[in-house]
Design goal:
The complex is a heterodimer.
Chain A (H helix, E strand, L loop, with lengths): L12 H30 L5 H73 L10 E8 L7 E4 L12 E4 L2 E9 L4 E5 L6 E6 L4 E6 L4 E6 L12 E4 L11 E9 L2 E6 L8 E4 L3 H4 L19
Antiparallel strand pairs in A: 1-2, 1-12, 2-5, 3-4, 3-12, 4-5, 6-7, 6-9, 7-8, 8-11, 9-10, 10-11
Chain B lengths: L8 E2 L2 E2 L3 E3 L1 H17 L15 H12 L9 H12 L5 H19 L5 H25 L10 H25 L2 E3 L3
Antiparallel strand pairs in B: 1-2, 3-4
Classes of the chains: A alpha+beta, B mainly alpha.
Chain lengths: 299, 183
């Protein structure tokens, strides 16, 4: 297709000025973009109000789309189920038998845990969730991994609250507006989750940028991790409560491992927002009580 | 054998008393780029960036198919809208889309001959530079992602670009559809 021959504005002063001002506006866009970008890079929450308004505005469509998405994926998995049902049935029977044994062991451990917690004076019982919600949107093409949650400040959600699904940890709340909130997924490269293997090998799980997590061991030495190890939150730092499943080790590296996220956000239909671990234990928030010398200093 | 041709027949409708809708003619390019920002948000929640930047592909396609239809300053409002949802640091799309519109104006003045291959090649260079720039800005805002991680996204984006061009040419036909008018 030939380019249009309309660059020349002719003798019309009006056309000349229009062309000139259009170019000028183009460069104003560049300059304004630079200014806004520098502002937002120096202060990450600079435009969070504007983003919140926008995400509130499109949240109803997101909710509808989430419903359609769930129905669509369950439709396809139902069709797929016809072809794999035999093999799956056999596998599930085997897994059930193993699980029955594990359940008995877990019962025993639970009783022992309750006894030990009572000795230490820690509160026993499940942590009450702040809200139940849906993931209604996620950033599709940016390397930053954010998702949008279908509830906001009106439901009691606040910045810093951990978010989990029945399968494992999903992320934490980064920005809240009245009807929706923005989530930093654990696969984002800025997210850092303290994790440990059940027998106490500590590591940090950081997003790798390709949907996997990079586990960095805290104690250097021979790499004790093995493919198939399940990493749980360790509870250190006071944000995520201990014992939430995070990832499964898939590939070893020199100083740690790569791990697959257990709670894949694309299959996390419903998620639960919880209070930060330290707050739910009754430890004062260091941001709100700057006089105390640390979150655990009083204990 | 002599079949009479219809009174008026074009790709945009047939019959007399037909005219373009001024609303569609003006709004479709802007709305299509904005929908390109919104619709990918609602596709399955992604744990890795694989999706091409659809709104940007649509913008570049409109600029190539109908030069001058979107004004040179279109990157400012459309980029602002994209920044609200993209997860990039705010201002990233305002800056990069404005630069893109100016750069495409310059490219068009320098390389006036056009063909599918030339357009695709020019768009590929623009898309690759754009994605690398967004990666740099995302890393500046706190991420730590290596450039090698977005290679699949680069490939997908470059390969999908002709499809975006198809979509835009279809939207252009829709934009110029003729409706019955009374006057």
């Amino acid at each position: 297709m030939a380019p249009p021959n309309n660059r020349r504005t002719g003798f019309s002063k009006r056309a000349q000025y229009n062309a000139f001002y259009a170019y000028l506006a183009g460069f104003v866009g560049v300059v304004l973009g630079c200014v806004v970008l520098l502002t937002s890079l120096s202060d990450h929450s600079a435009f969070s109000g504007l983003r919140g308004l926008a995400s509130d505005a499109v949240a109803p469509v997101g909710r509808a789309a989430a419903t359609g998405r769930d129905e669509g994926s369950s439709f396809f998995s139902a069709i797929g189920g016809f072809f794999t049902s035999g093999a799956r049935n056999a596998r599930l029977q085997k897994e059930t038998e193993i699980a029955r044994v594990k359940l008995a062991e877990a019962e025993d451990l639970r009783a022992e845990n309750a006894r030990l917690k009572a000795l230490m004076g820690l509160p026993v019982g499940d942590i009450q969730p702040v809200a139940k919600a849906r993931l209604i949107a996620s950033t599709p093409s940016s390397t930053r991994r954010f998702a949008t949650l279908s509830v906001g400040r009106a439901a009691g959600v606040d910045v810093g609250m951990p978010v989990r699904s029945p399968l494992g940890l999903v992320g934490r709340v980064l920005e809240v507006s009245s009807g929706s909130s923005r989530l930093l997924l654990i696969t984002d490269s800025e997210s850092m989750v303290p994790v440990r293997r059940a027998d106490g090998v500590d590591a940090f799980a950081q997003g790798n940028g390709d949907g996997r997590l990079h586990l960095r061991l805290i104690n250097l030495g021979p790499n004790p991790l093995r493919p198939g190890d399940v990493m749980l939150t360790s509870g250190s730092g006071g944000l995520y409560r201990p014992g939430i499943a995070v990832a499964v080790v898939t590939e070893l590296t020199r100083d740690g491992a790569f791990a697959r996220v257990l709670s894949d956000p694309s299959s996390s239909e419903f998620v639960v927002v919880e209070r930060p671990f330290a707050v739910s234990l009754g430890v004062p928030d260091p941001d709100q009580a700057p006089a105390s010398s640390g979150p655990l200093a009083k204990h | 054998m002599a079949s009479t041709p219809p009174l008026h027949h074009s790709a945009y409708g047939q019959g007399i008393n037909r005219a373009h809708s001024p609303l569609l003619v003006r709004a479709v390019p802007w709305l299509s780029v904005m929908l390109g920002t919104l619709v990918p948000l609602w596709l399955p929640i992604a744990s890795a960036p694989l999706m091409p930047p659809i709104s940007f592909l649509i913008l570049v396609s409109w600029r190539q198919l109908r030069p001058g239809l979107l004004p040179i300053w279109a990157g400012l409002p459309l980029g602002l809208f994209d920044d609200l949802f993209s997860g990039q640091p705010f201002g990233s799309a305002i800056l990069l889309w404005s630069v893109t519109m100016i750069a495409m104006e310059v490219i068009e003045a320098q390389i006036p001959w056009r063909s599918v291959i030339v357009d695709w090649l020019a768009a590929s260079v623009i898309i690759v530079l754009y994605l690398l720039a967004t990666l740099g800005l995302a890393n500046a805002s706190g991420g730590h992602v290596l450039a090698i991680m977005i290679v699949p996204q680069l490939l997908v984006s470059v390969l999908v670009f002709p499809l975006a061009g198809r979509l835009v040419s279809w939207l252009d036909n829709f934009r110029l559809m003729r409706f019955r008018t009374l006057f």
